Description:
Distance between the termini: 21 Å
Bound molecules: zinc ion
Shape: globular
Radius of gyration: 11 Å
Number of helices: 0
Helix content: under 10%
Number of domains: 1
Amino acid sequence: xxxxxxxxxxxxxxxxxxxxxxxxxxxxxxxxxxxxxxxxxxxxxxxxxxxx
Length: 52
Ligand SMILES: [Zn+2]
């Protein structure tokens, strides 16, 4: 389970997992990490936001 997000981009995701992070709003960044929001939704965030 460790390091599973490293290496190749995730080809089964749209744009190889890249997009705009909903938290820091960087564009073209890989959204690899699931994050629970306050409304109990799970969103994908970038590595910079994974621990927030
Ligand atoms: Zn982010």
